[in-house]
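Why does this matter for the project? Reviewers at the last site visit asked to see concrete outputs rather than summary tables. In response, this paragraph embeds two records directly. Each consists of the residue sequence and, immediately after it, the corresponding structure tokens. Nothing has been edited or filtered.
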Amino acid sequence: MKGPVLVMDTGVSTAIPLSSRHYGAVNWLGLQTLIQREIKRFMKVGAQTVFAPLVQTLLFMMVFSLIRTGFWPGTTHHYADGLAAGLVMMSILSNAFQNSSSSIVIAKVQGNAVDFLMPPLSALELTIAFILGAAARGLLVGVVSLVAICWMANVVPDNPLVALYYALVASVIFGAIGLLGGVWADKFDHLAAVTNFIIVPLTFLSGTFYSTQVLPEPMRSISHYNPVFSLIDGFRYGFIGHADAPLWRGGLITGALALALCWACWAASWRVATLRRSALRLPGDRTCRHLRDECGEQRCRRRAIFASDQATLRPARRKDLSLSPALRLKKWRHSLCRWGRRRSRRNYSCHKPSQLPAEFAYAFWRASRECAWPSQA
């Protein structure tokens, strides 16, 4: 059944049938739009997000190449060849983490998380979009890093498929970690703590700058339990054809870890999407009433009723003497409603960090707009 017809006054009669848009099992348009948003977000500041990591990679490459020469342990490749693979993988890991985590935290701080929470996107679609955006940035930085250090080392891979697999898995893993960290963090200080105390130690102690064969026992065996070691060791095998640990074990560990983290991100996104749907129900719904009770909506309503009763009893203020009693009462209620909405937006920090503040702010604002206030007659 066709809906109304829109006629555009452009000199030529154009009839456009208006009807509701139906989505299938996957909202491909919304998924594609969110992926493009994530990619364009870091490409807009490409000098900061893509080319700035090259400075750190080049500095590490030059310093460690001057300190140590010779061959990589157990191979006939130069030390710079193995070091280059480790540095490229480190760039992929750090940039994939930074992209997804910063995207969520910036949206929470600026209050524009509703841009991707309100559209009809499922939890799985949100997870895929953010992880693919993070993987795109990590892989792009990795390719640019390979091109930048090609004059200092041999960066032609001996096993390109193996190198590509570990690069993809690494970007997905750390994109998922960044997504979880962004949902958990309330401000950039929390992300800095994750980076300084988790990401950097795991990366530096995983054989990025050295081969684990030079480590004494039990440090060598302990380092093999580091999941980042499996990523770097497998990626290095793709370039120099040598691995410090069995390659099949590293492939299984990294694949299982990627699936587990993606499932965790889906679970977190499902929780957020469920909260979003519950926040948009009618004011008479039990969930929406529960949200308003938690966020001070009932307190605001009680204050409005109390103020309306008091306004009829207390003498009018000097600047309101020219207003009728009904207008003075309406002004009191309007000011209290605005106070309640500001208070609701300000009190979202009392909730758990895993719940996005911007979503709560929008839900409280919508609830305060839709709730049945006392008659303003």
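We now turn to the second protein, recorded in exactly the same manner.
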Amino acid sequence: MEPVPARAHVVFAQEVSPPDPDQPILREVESPELRELTDPSTVAELVTDAFAELAGDVLARLPLFLIGLLVFVLLLVVVRLLLKVVNRGMLRGDVDFTVRRLVTNLLKLFLLLGVVLLSLSIAGVEIGAMLAALGLIGLGIALALQNILENLLSGVMILIRKPYDRGEIIVTEEVEGYVEDIDLRVTTIRTYEGTLILVPNADIFSAPITNLSRRGTRRTTLHIGIDYRDDHERAKELLFHTVEQIPEVLSDPPPQVLLTGLGDSSVDFEVRVWFDAQEGVPKMLDLCYRACKTALDDAGITIPWPIRTLAADMQPLQVEQRAGAAREQPAAAQLERPSGGEDRGQAALAEHQPLVRPRPDPPPRPPEA
């Protein structure tokens, strides 16, 4: 069989004349198909067919829809019973009202969302794209509300664990005062001056908290000193009986009076008393200090003030400057020293010996001829 020779295609260039400007661009086209599509009867027929097809699909899936609706109703009943059980459990556990309301609402939201998605899935609806969209929306909300969510979770943990409650006195960082209110975002603290401070729950939850009134009682300490010449045993007994008679001071645990040191000018005592935490430290210090001062005065026991005693010899003194230039300054001083102060004055002179020295006696004059 002989091969068929290929035909050569020759293209001839043909000059095309420009379009007539008077001729319209859009021209009426005579097409049977187009006329059929624009015919009202044809359009009505197409719509009718579409609805008929949709109705056929609905009728075909009607059992699935009915099953999904039945599952939805049953799950709503289950959700309602479950919420009642959870609420009763939190009531028995003495959970705060704010936490109960938050947990109930969140649980209700998630359960209803799960019920709707499960019912749609049973009915034959594709929920994959819906779940992906919900995940993206949740991620965006979490990133946008990061600080608010942190305070929210911290508030929930504070309300559940209850490291402090309304009316208690707490110290957190540099804030001290009475707890006025606790919500899901901030804790309101009233200071002793009456100022309200709103502290974010995230800051409180991540910082050390000192609860001063959780146990109901507090202890404060008074520092009192008496003169060395007074009887310290008598003073100790007097201080104990004085604070013991104050009505606001608790007898259990009893007060304590301890000798804690021998100061420069006094014998130092610590008076430790317990009291109701709601009384406040300033009030108790005022009551105890006034009572102790009155009792010591009535007993003739002196509360001394700091005293410093300086002593110098009778001989003239020569003051030497540190720079090396000596300047003589004749001075004679005699200070009256109380009994028992000689050793302390001599120690003071010995300590300042490099700076203050007695001037030596002049050499004897030679006899005149």
